[in-house]
Hints:
The structure is a homodimer.
Chain A: H1 4-14, E1 19-20, H2 23-28, E2 43-45, H3 50-63, E3 67-70, E4 87-90, E5 97-101, E6 106-109, H4 115-124, E7 127-128, H5 141-147, H6 154-157, E8 164-170, E9 176-180, H7 192-196, E10 205-212, E11 214-215, E12 219-227, H8 230-242, E13 249-254, H9 255-265, E14 275-283, H10 285-301, E15 306-309, H11 313-324, H12 326-331, E16 336-339, H13 349-362, E17 368-372, E18 377-384, H14 389-408, H15 427-446
Helix pairs in contact in A: 1-3, 8-10, 13-14
Protein name (chains A, B): Glycolate oxidase subunit GlcD
InterPro entries (chains A, B): FAD-bd_oxidored_4_C, FAD-bd_PCMH, FAD-bd_PCMH-like_sf, FAD-bd_PCMH_sub2, FAD-linked_Oxase-like_C, FAD-linked_OxidoTrans_Type4, GlcD, Oxid_FAD_bind_N
Domain FAD-binding PCMH-type (chains A, B): 37-216
Amino acid sequence: MITSTLKEKLVSIVGHENIDDSKAGRLVYSYDATPQFQSMPDMIVAPRNTKEVSEIVKLCNEHKIPIVPRGSGTNLCAGTCPTEGGIVLLFKHMNKILELDEENLAVIVQPGVITLDLTNTVEAAGLFYPPDPSSMKISTIGGNLNENSGGLRGLKYGVTRDYVLGLEIVLPNGDIIRTGGKLAKDVAGYDLTRLFVGSEGTLGIITEATLKLIPMPETKKTMLALYQDMEAAARTVSRIIANRIIPATLEFLDQPTLIAVEDFAKIGLPTNVKAVLLIEQDGAPEIVERDMKRIAEICHEELAESVQIAGTNEEAENLTAARRAALSALARLKPTTILEDATVPRSEIANMVRAINEIADKYHVKIATFGHAGDGNLHPTCPTDVRDRDEIERVEHAFAEIFAKAIELGGTITGEHGVGAMKAPYLEWKLGKEGIAAMKAIKASFDPNNIMNPGKVFAKESRKRLVVTR
Amino acid sequence: MITSTLKEKLVSIVGHENIDDSKAGRLVYSYDATPQFQSMPDMIVAPRNTKEVSEIVKLCNEHKIPIVPRGSGTNLCAGTCPTEGGIVLLFKHMNKILELDEENLAVIVQPGVITLDLTNTVEAAGLFYPPDPSSMKISTIGGNLNENSGGLRGLKYGVTRDYVLGLEIVLPNGDIIRTGGKLAKDVAGYDLTRLFVGSEGTLGIITEATLKLIPMPETKKTMLALYQDMEAAARTVSRIIANRIIPATLEFLDQPTLIAVEDFAKIGLPTNVKAVLLIEQDGAPEIVERDMKRIAEICHEELAESVQIAGTNEEAENLTAARRAALSALARLKPTTILEDATVPRSEIANMVRAINEIADKYHVKIATFGHAGDGNLHPTCPTDVRDRDEIERVEHAFAEIFAKAIELGGTITGEHGVGAMKAPYLEWKLGKEGIAAMKAIKASFDPNNIMNPGKVFAKESRKRLVVTR
Lengths: 470, 470
């Protein structure tokens, strides 16, 4: 509980204008993009700099007040739902791109920077920051770091973690540490940088990041291949890789997704096919040309019904934008949309998609599947309605079976969305008791009072997707 | 101390033939490639599988016996010197490439595999494992993983950590955990995979690794640019990157290194120049051609005395082999060779090389410098003699100043060699007390009895490079 004395201290740190404990203000931050999770925070606090973050953290540690760092709340694992109340920490003041260092191919940012703003800034200098979560228009870098966000370019370029050179972190005891630097190589001690990326705010507060940039690819081409057979689409994915071609993007959409997306975006996508691959290659023009030609041949050999290369940049961008809008499009179908990200080795995609469809049939639920086929990172998505308790229960069972299947195929319960509160009950399936114990030991060593985003990653008991009001 | 009862138990696990506690046997493993560090282990043990490793670890944890996992001992940070005695764990039986999965671009290996054997195996399948430490002919993958080894291709391709998808680990309590998998994306909990890579055997024993492969570049070209001015060479490095070209290799050798290497390799390297850049580009032929042409122009614009592209593969391989032999070549000059790897942002290379030369002059010691210019990862190397206590003291002071300078320039005390026993006293300069405390907390959470490679990473007191006999 935040006493009036504690509130006064917080006000003295950040000022009245950066604290909100009104009911309306707290309600706004009582949930994130994840359906079925809601819990009221006690206060919203917006620090202006790292020193203030450190002071806030020290106070919270002393008084055992939970802190939930939050960007734009676009995560899909209830990672920023203030499950145990406490303070939601906003970074609206810490939203600057501090330095673009072209010589060292690095950019230094504060956590509140919007991902797309970063992308646009570095691209204007001919540089490239590849991680591109579908929410990039509104997501913040801080959120991307905490969730280790992926995106459409993961296959060729990797994910957020692969582009973090160094961090400034406020530890739960208030200590401010700096890891890494503008350095291509650094082995001075344990890799705290990558430990913190993807730690979902449970180990400390990231207050600054030095990110790696690469030269902007010279050109890009986008292709759409249509299939009447999902297995053929999956075989195409495997054969492209077997031909030693790594496309920049290799996305899969099934028919239900396609119909929803076309209904939403209205760009003339075909809706009478069973599966679509959206393929992009970037790089030097001659190589892009050559790769796309070979990829088109493979698509034809695997009996694609049609293979079209976007004629203009605008057409290409429309296709990619349509794919990025898949969640928004599917979310229009029913009041509640549950999107998951079970991930399997690339070779198992066909098996996984088949299993998802069988599981959906078994539980009489509708599941549309799209995702990053090149990564094996699929997004089975269920349009449903939380008010229909019977259906929701079947949805829960279906997703539990999907997770189990992913693990059986050598995969994982989450490829890029994180564990948060939502998938915590399933984490043990992937890691075993021993793996969970190892992670809990790390958590306890950093945050003995469990003030940092408590209730995330580690499950208390069993899964629940219930609305909790405090 | 290993009692006779404990010895019997160890024999019952691995068999008589896999234990050696003879004085001669122990002497062999009392040191590694790092000068000035020696300490006798109590026993050498060679387990045959993960289960045996787990049983050994459990026993050692119970009896508080140190365990030092060791590959070929090529590290340069005294990382495998059994500083506090105990058991040296060898992986001579666990040396298999278990699976090459071409569809998922992954290879599963045991820790005892020789790096070059792995490279050759995957290249025969048209695939590429980029990390290439100079010791790769004899180093093991287990050693590379524990040290997060770099190499000549770090600039374009990254280091060992960037190619590890999953691990099997025996924790200090004997638990066997598996992290990651054949997965391009996995955010199920903290990134234990990357935490263990580079942890120098201080957190647990890696018993298996799933490594990421990429398609083999189609072609490669090698160039040598000669300079009478070190600053011009450094400017060339910056301008290549500023031109948005990332070469596969961008190595720097100063004149003293060049003379030593030519004397050793006798391949006709010029020895009358002040600095040499060894530059490689790989990829599609058209791109390699175009990049090398542009790089050659930049070299000429920066007044390189000569720019030669290797005409044949053999010539190119000789050049790279000569660079890889730099340590061996310099080691012939004097009885003791101390090689360091201070690392700075790329833009600071000229400043760093200049500082190294000034510091060498100040302390009247000879320091040759070569290294990965594209990474800012330099290897100032001092041919000296441990028996000359006066000179050794000056060498110590010189290197301490070099580390301080690297940090002042935004760099680190070690880019790819690790901290080990050797650089532990300097780690605080890079991380601060708070950073060290955070890392120590992780260490304590995994290994409360401090049995895993004790005396490494974390300094007890001050620096010492003394021969300790137990």
